[in-house]
Each structure stands twice: as structure tokens, then as C-alpha cells.
Amino acid sequence: MTHDLVLRVEDLRVTHPGPVTALDGLSFELAAGQVLGLVGESGSGKSAAALALLGLHRGTRTRVEGGILLHRADRPVLDLNQAGDAELRTVRGPELAMVFQEPLTSLDPYRRVGAQIAAAYRLHTGASRAEARQRTAEVLDRVGIDPKRARDYPHQFSGGMRQRVLIAMALALRPRVLVADEPTTALDVTVQAQILRLLDELRQETGMALVLVSHDVGVVGGLADEVVVLRQGRAVERGATARLLGRPEHPYTQALLRAVPRLDAPLPERQAPAADDVLVETAGLRVDFGSVQALRGVDLTVRRGETLGVVGESGSGKSTLGRALVRLQDPTSGTVRFDGQDLASWRGRELRRRRHELQMVFQDPTSSLNPRRLIGDSVAEPLRVHGGRDEAKLRAEAVALLERVGLDAAHADRYPHELSGGQRQRAAIARALILRPKLVVCDEPVSALDVTTQAQVVSLLRELREEFELTLVFIAHDLAVVRSVSDRVAVMRKGEVVETLAAAELTRPQHEYTRALLDAVPRLDAVTAG
Amino acid sequence: MLVLVALTAPWLAALEGQDPNSFHDTLLNSATGGSPNGAFGGISAQHWLGVEPTTGRDLFARLVYGARVSLGVAVGATLGQLLLGLLVGLAAGLGGRWADALLSRVTDLALALPTFFFSIALLAVVPQSFPRPLLLGLILSGLGWAPIARIVRAETRVLREREYVSAAVLTGASTWRIARREILPGLVAPVATYTAIVLPQNMVAEAGLSFLGLGVRPPTSSWGQMLSTATTWFQVDPTYVLIPALTLLVCVLAFAGLGEALRVAFDPKSAPPAAKRRRRKAAQAEKAERAGSEAKATRPAALIPAPAREPSARGAVASGPGASAAPGVDANAPAGDSAPGTPAARTDNNPAHSAHPVGTKGEGQ
Amino acid sequence: MIRFLLRRLLGAAAVLLALAALTYLLFYAMPGDPAQLACGKGCTAPQLAQVRHALGTDQPVVRQFWTFLTTLVLGHSFSTGPSTVWCSAPCLGYSYQSNEAVTQMLLDRLPVDVSLALGSAALWLLLGIGTGLFAALKPGRWRDRITNTVILTLGSTPVFVMALLLLMGACVWLQVLPFPNYVPITEDPVQWAQNLLLPWLAIALVSAAGYTRLTRAGVLETLNQDHIRTLRAYGYPERRIVLRHAVRGALPTVVTVAAMDIGMVLAGAVFTETMFGLPGLGKLAVESAGTVDLPVVCGITLLAGALIVVANTVADLLHAALDPRVRI
């Protein structure tokens, strides 16, 4: 590996109006061909840092201090933070390029993708139209997109393909540094693996340096030479990737790594529920939305007292399955039997009376609680629906449950937006439990949360299921998380269950799709071993 | 302020010492065909704003009495539109597929009506014996509910997909309870904003119809009716024209300003102080949580949540008449490689339809 | 694309039919005898019966509506006492008051509205988009705020007040323009434009406000989107970003709304025409309403409805053409 210095960042500080310090003194050096990983949870300042590198805070009220020194051959060192707007613009693209988190919205919806790549290329090279078209075809081909699709609009591409287009746009100008801000967060795990592989190949071919920003230690670990761990704007630890992940020194890094769910972690001992005591059973469950078949005949059993994990990528129908299990979604055909009864046979008053036996915890804690009602009010509401009139008693019951899930009485008098994501999810769990349900379906309950919060909520669910004698259906895209809570795991793809295995067997699957999913998961153990 | 004027009209007129309908021939100059004597349309200590040409009726008294009719019709019509719009919109938004399809088509039809011509025609057809202000209110509400219904329906649909509404369904709450407790509070902001836009429009509509001689007729006064009689005099007695015109203008502007203020207050993008305070509280919650974890360094904490997002379908109202939220055109098609980006826009959600209130914006409809 | 077009057109046709039914019911099935109204005052009993027969009001309502529809499509003959007049399709009925076929009356008036609509639309688009961009370039600054205030004021002025003020200002006090008097463009284009200037201004000043807001909001909203950040990250100059890319984002909405507004003005600018004495559809509607000439009022309402439906359909199609995501 060559060691030509391309970028030196000195004591970078980013302050949002308020003033709120987003980034408090970040320094690093980056050589050609090197990959630097910036890891942190939300609020760590990692994205603010990424934007600051390209001067994208300019024109806003956010202040950037410190030095961003770009080293170029035969030219004086340029401090991007001091450079004039015009000079900065000449650097954006040919020297530093950026790939963003939201591939779905980062392309102009009104222009063909080829035209967008060509325009960026021509802007900096002054090439002719024909030359630009030529180069566009080259780079599209390189990132694995048929050059003929240059005439398509962004909405005609999937998320992963749009991210490839954005990488192609960067590639066209042969930048020396590519800043990738959460480039795979919005993507499925198999697509994520492809994009990461592509970035690595391009780095090797062109010798560009890469700044990889992510919340996912696994993603960064697989690619970076050096990692900086950020927390609340401060770099708490830095070091070569293998050392940092293998022998973390700072307590925060240690906690962060401990919270990351791993596929090789030991599973807690647990009494397997009796196989013949079935609480929920679906038979030939189909759900169509117009011409889209969300579920294509699902046969599944959930035993009383067990936790059934459901994994799948986006579009696999796992959420639809969850909604059908609690009768938020009526099946197009097929049945869901609950406690021996066909759910569809519940009607009118009976349905309303018995609904509470089936509850759900939703993914997005920002929208699962009514923003205009106090937390305590939301949690007590189910009791009111079922005839509770004594407000003092209702409140006492709500507060008791809130305390059980790790909140306190003061939280009952707050609005949802005054709580953190983890706190909101705890409140939503309390609301689901207040009517003592038999079955709780958790639809991606932790995927919107930071990894350390995620670990806490998962362990809370583990405790509660014993205490409340719950049967859980735990839906998630993250195999490691699902494995850590489930007794059995059902793997879904395109509206079908491809296989159901015991959690302990998940790493030794029968089906090739499950194996592909497993292979795509970024591994920490591989890095630390090497 | 205006409402106050309208309510206290008799006393105000009494204060001035004039009656809206008594004639004062003595103040008129018969040589010029009955224009008032004196400067600025005969303004004097007795007649604060002068008198009406030909008849010599007191303008100030007519103006304050006119305020009652103008405001009464506008407020009444607005309430009527709100009621109808809320009913139809909620029914369509919460009802089944058929109810929604039917009510939405009816709303579409109502939106395509040339409202203004219909009112003109209806006013012409209904016998004179029917009290005009009441008729005006009925016609305006009967023809103007559709935009509100559309907004309410769209917003209800959005709210209905919220997970907290699903959670309420799971508790076994009835549809009516869900509408009342979960949906309606969410409708307050968009409906209030839209009401503030519609109220001045109704005022203008009333004034317009009366101006054309089809609405309120003499001797009852309303600002539009005053303006209507005044136009024939604008060469001779400009004050007579300017008084009702400016009053109307100021009044409409006041309401429009109020609407604008409401819009800004409810717009999640321009965070009002209250929301900022709340957000700060949330930030404090984060900090407290972190501080707690700091103590037990091994158990670090939840970090900043995405700022609470307010419903965004409000765009339809947010930018006033004609603005668009383009609810169908959403680039956030599904992520992941399994599905190609869906061409998301359903054409019947076209902003063109959803957002253009068929009020009396600008020209007659 | 063709299916999309067909569906839109079918939908438009359905709305039109419903509109016709509604209009018809409102006017002909209302309490009060249209025959009496059509016949005028001092109408004798036999005359009344004759008119009633001619109008067909002695037949059941559904039958009447069918006749009304066939008349519209196929034409119909009307007896006007001594002679019989053939009213060819599309026949909207016959006005016994002015002894003319309604369709012909409407066609005579339409050029005025076309002149009004096109001229004012050009003006308001120019004004609206211009001020919108002006405000959007430096949001939050004083010029944005001033533009906002002026626009809010102009935009909430009732059009008849605007017309009145313009008339008083230009014709009475300053005397820079003659009192408008419609001259067809075919006779004298200069006179045509000069006489229509004030009406155009009246409509444009009031309507431009909406476009200022739309443009400003559209541009600012687009500037906040992720794809604009991509452009910035590739070193596009800010001016080019605003003028080329942000405007492109605001365009579909502006064009869509413009199409509908033009439809509205085409359907009759009631106040402007009344104020400036322009012989257009709006003025005709008011006059006919005053004399209770039902066939004319009914015809105008129907035509206006049709124009609005057509404008909405055009707006939809334009929107689909301008936004690549809206393709069916």
C-alpha cells in the first residue's frame, strides 16, 4: 500500500446553531488507498463530520472550524475550510466525492441517470457530450449496471441500483477521496454486501481513499484499515481495525461491541415449549394487495409460550404476516387459527371484546404513540376501552407498568416527542401489555434504535415474556437479533416461508437462501481473528 | 374587533345618532343628480363617513350594519362548509372501500362544479321571498364543502395508517371512538388552517354576489351591496366607493393575515417556540439518559431519536391555495433490491385535484 | 400511457354527464315553473301551455333529461310561435327571451374570454414566477418578506375591488387609459391589447400571488431535497442549482395549477367582465340571471363545468408529462 497523504483533518469542530456542538475536535490522516471508518451511534457527529469534509455545511447556520487539508501532487496544500466557494467547487467531485445514505432520494427524479452522471463529468472536465456519454457508459458498466439503462429515470431503479448509480457518478471523475455516509443503511443485507464489495474493489483499482461512515461496527470492520469511534462529537478511541475490535480499550467501545448482536454468541438456556401445544396456526395464508402478492400461502405454527422469530429482507411479506396474525390485515384466502378458533369468525362485539388477547409492538416508536397524548394517557387508554372508569386507578396501573418496563411516573406526564427512541419503545411495550395479551407480535421492534438501546430493549422483552407468560412473534431483518431472542426462526422470502429452524440451528441452515443471508451478514469475528 | 363591530352595530349607530335606513334629502345636491353636498361625500360631525347619494342614508350606519350581514354570511357559510366537509371527509376516510369510492367521486364532482355560476343561477331561480342572507349561507356551504372534505379525507387516510391507530384498533376500540380520540385531534391543525383561508373567501364571495346584485338587496345593507350601488357613482363621489371597498379589503386582509399566521404556526418546518421548547426537553431527556449511563460507564445510552415528524400530508394546506403535497409522488419507494422502485404516483392523487380549493380565489367560477 | 389517457378521458366524460344531470335537475326540476319564466310576463294560458309543450316540461323528469341530452348531441328544433328554428348540435337549448340559440350566444362571447384568459395568464405567470424566484433566492431576508407582504395583500384583494381601484386610478384620476371597450383582435390588435390591458392587470395582479407562493415554496422545498445536496457535493454553482434544478422541481405544480386557472378564466371572468363592460360569458351569465333566462344560465353553467373538467384533465396530463414518476 502506498502512503501518499491525501487528506489531513486537524481538530475539526462542527457547531449547529443553538449552539449545539455536533463534532468536538476530530483529527485524522488519510493516505491514498486507505479506508478510514467513522463509527458512532446517532448523535455522535459522524454525519456532521462527513458533510464538513466536503464543505456541505456552507450556506447553513452551522459553523465549521479546524483544518481540512487536501494534499495534491505539484500543488500547494489546500485548506478546504478556508478555501473560497469557487475554489471549493473545483475540488468537489474530482478530488473529493460523496455517496449518501439515501440512494432513493439522492438522484434528481426529473432527469435520466445517464444525463446526471454526464453533467457532473462535463462540469469538471469540459468534455464534449460524446466523451461524457462514453465515460458514463464505462462507469455504469463498471458498477454493474447495463449502460443501456443510462436512459432510465431514477425511479426505475431499486435502492441498491441507485446507490450503484451514485457510486458511478463519483467514479466518473476519478476522485482521490470518496466519503461514504452510511452508504448501505437503507439497503437489505445481501445488497449491502454487494455494495461494500464494490467499494472495496474500486478502492483497489483506482487507489482512492475511502472515508466510511456507519453506525454498524460490522460494516466498518469489514472494510476499514483504521477505525475512529465517535461518541457525542468526541473521538473516544481510534486504532487499527483488528486491534480496536479485538481489544477495545475505552469502556464505551467495549460496551458498544458487547451490544452488537452476534451470530456466534452463546444462546441462553431455555426450556423449549411443548411442540403439541399450539397457540396460533396459519394454513395457506395468502394476502394480495391488488396485483402484488404479499403472502403466497404461509403455513406456520406458533407454540404456546415460545418465541418465534421471523426474518426476511424487504418485500418478503414478514410485516404483512405479523399484521395478519393479529387481524389487522384480513387474509385474501387461508386461515389464522388462534387458540383453536378461526380469527375470521370473530365479528363485531366479540371481535372488539377479544382483540386484546392479540397485541403488537411496532417498528417506528415515533408513530406508534399518539403525538398529541401524554404517555400515561396512551398506556391507560386500552383499559378505558374495556370499561375502566376510575381514572386514579387507571393511572396507578399505567404507572406501575411503566415502572416495570424501565420508565418512571414522571414519564407518564410527557409527550412522546419528549422521550428518546428507546423510552418510547418501552412505553409502547407497556401499552401492549396492559391488557395481559396472550400473543404479542413485535414488528422490527428494535431496528430504529441504536445498538446499545437495542440490546436493552431486547433483554427487556426476554424478561417480560417469562413474567407475563407471553407468546412472542419477533419479526426483524437482522438475523443475529432474531436468533438471540427466538426459540425457532422462520425465514421468509417473497411471501413464502422457505424454512423454519430451531434458533441454535440457524447457523447451519438447509436452504440456500438462508445461507446466502447468513453469508451477507458482516462478521466481526473474521476481522478480529485476522 | 370586526366581530365586535358587527355585534354592537345598533349601539354604534346610535352613538353616531343615525339610522341606516332613514333618508336625508336635505344633504343632497339635486342639481348633480343627488350627489352629497360637502367635501368627501358629505363627511360631517353627524355623518362620520358621509351619506349615500340619491337617498342620503348614513354611510357609517350602513357600514356597521353591513358588517353584520357580511360577517354573518361568511361565518355561517364557513361553519356549514366545515360541518359538511368534516362529515363527508371522515366518512370517506374511515369507511370501507365502497363508501370511500362513492364519497370521493361525489367530492370530485363537487370540485368540478362551476361554483360561482351555480350560485348565480341558484340565486336567480330561488324566489325573492326566501331570506337572502340565509340563502347565501346555504348556497356557499352547499357548494364549498368539497375542498375541506378532500383535505379531511386525505389527512384521515394518513392518520389511519399511523401505527398508534393500529394500536388503538388492537385494543378493541370502536371506529367511532378511534375517530374521536385518535383521528380528530390530528385534524385540528389542517382544518383550522384551511378555515382561516376559507373564511375571507366566503366573505369575498358574499360581497361579490351582492355586488352583482344577486345577493343581499337594499334596503338591507352589506358591503358588497354598498359597493354595487357605489360603482355607478365613482366618477362623482369617489369616497362613496372607497369606503366599502377599503373596509372589505382591510377585513379580508386581516383574515388572510390570520390564516397566514395559523399556517406558519402549524407548519412543522418553521418550528414555533412551543415545539422548540419541547424538542429541547427531548434533548434533555437524552442527556439525562446519557448522564445516567455515564455513571455506570458500561451501560451507555439511547441517543437522539429522529425529531418527531409531524404528518406531512399537510402540504396541501400548508402553502395555501393551489399548493401541492403531491401525496402520490413519493420518491421513497421501497428500499432494497427485491423490488424495483415503484412508479408511485396514483393519478387521482394528483396535486391538481387535491389542493386547489374551489373557493373564490381570483376570478369567478 | 394510452390506457392512462383513456381512463382520464372516461373519468372526465363521467363527471361531465353527472354535471349535466345536476345542472338540469337544479334548473328545470326546481320549484317554480320554467315555462312561466321562459314565456315571460303577460303570458296567456294557451301560450304557456304551448311553451310548456315546447320545453317538454309536461313530460316526466327522466324523459325530459333524455330529451335534453339528445338535444345536446343531435340538435333539436324549437318552435318560436310563427316559425320553427333548427338548433344544431351541440345544442344547449333556445333562449326565448333573446330569440337565439344558446350555443350561438355562447360562441359569440367566447373570444372575449379567450382573449382575457390568455393575456392575463401570460401576465400572472410572468409576475408570479418572477416574484417567486426573487423571493426564493434569498429566503428570510427583507426582500423575501416584502415580496411576501405585497403578494399577500394583492392576493387577498377581491378581484372586483382590484378592478374598481384600477379603473378609478387609470381612467378617472390619471386618465392614461380610455375606459375599456372590447375590440376584437381581428379588427385592430393594438386597440384590442390597449383595451384589455386593465382587465388583464386586474386578473393577473390578484392571481399572481398564488404563483409567487407556489414558485417560492416549490423552489425552497426542492432546495431542501437530497438530490440538490448531491449537486452541491459535485461542485455545481449555486445559481445553476437554483435556476435549473430547483425550478424544475417546482415546475409540474405551477404548470398544473396554471392550466386549471386558465380554465376558470375561460369559463367566464364574471367580475372583470362586469366591471369593465366586456361582453364575455361571465357578463352574459349575470345578465341572464338577472332576467331569469334559464336556458342561457343553464348553458353557461354547463359550458363552464365542461371547461373546468377539460382544464383539470389537461392539468393531469401536463403533470404526467412533466413528472417522469407519474407514468402509468
Write the layout of secondary structure elements.
The complex is a heterotrimer of chains A (530), B (365) and C (328).
Chain A: E1 5-16, E2 20-31, E3 35-39, H1 46-53, E4 63-72, E5 75-79, H2 85-91, E6 96-99, H3 113-125, H4 129-142, H5 159-172, E7 177-181, H6 189-206, E8 209-214, H7 217-223, E9 226-231, E10 234-240, H8 241-246, H9 251-259, E11 278-289, E12 292-303, E13 307-311, H10 318-325, E14 333-338, E15 341-342, H11 348-354, E16 358-361, H12 375-385, H13 391-404, H14 421-433, E17 439-443, H15 451-467, E18 471-476, H16 479-485, E19 488-493, E20 496-502, H17 512-520, H18 524-529
Parallel strand pairs in A: 3-8, 3-9, 6-7, 7-8, 13-18, 13-19, 16-17, 17-18
Antiparallel strand pairs in A: 1-2, 1-4, 4-5, 9-10, 11-12, 11-14, 14-15, 19-20
Helix pairs in contact in A: 3-4, 3-5, 4-5, 5-6, 6-17, 9-15, 12-13, 12-14, 13-14
Chain B: H1 2-7, H2 9-16, E1 28-29, E2 35-36, H3 59-94, H4 97-112, H5 115-125, H6 132-144, H7 146-160, H8 163-170, H9 175-211, H10 223-231, H11 238-266, H12 273-295, H13 315-318, H14 351-355
Antiparallel strand pairs in B: 1-2
Helix pairs in contact in B: 2-3, 3-4, 3-6, 3-7, 3-9, 4-7, 5-6, 7-9, 8-9, 9-10, 9-11, 10-11
Chain C: H1 2-28, H2 34-39, H3 45-55, H4 61-74, E1 76-80, E2 83-87, E3 94-95, E4 100-101, H5 102-137, H6 142-155, H7 159-173, H8 189-223, H9 226-233, H10 238-266, H11 270-276, H12 281-291, H13 294-322
Antiparallel strand pairs in C: 1-2, 3-4
Helix pairs in contact in C: 1-4, 1-13, 5-6, 5-8, 5-10, 5-13, 6-8, 7-8, 7-11, 8-10, 10-13, 11-12, 12-13
Supply the CATH class of the largest domain in chain C: Mainly Alpha
Q: Which sequence of strands runs across the widest sheet of chain B? A: 1-2
Name the CATH homologous superfamily of the largest domain in chain C.
MetI-like
Number of helices, counting only DSSP H or I runs of 4 residues or more of chain C: 13
Low-confidence stretches of chain B: 30-34, 268-280, 286-365
- Largest β-sheet summary of chain C: 2 strands, antiparallel
Q: Using only CA atoms, what is the Rg of chain C?
A: 24 Å
- N-to-C SSE string of chain B, H for helix and E for strand: HHEEHHHHHHHHHHHH
Please state the structural category of chain C.
mainly alpha
Strand content of chain B: under 5%
Q: Can you tell me the overall shape of chain B? A: elongated
* Euclidean distance between termini CA atoms of chain B: 31 Å
Average pLDDT score of chain B: 64
Number of helices of chain B: 14
Strand arrangement, major sheet of chain C: 1-2
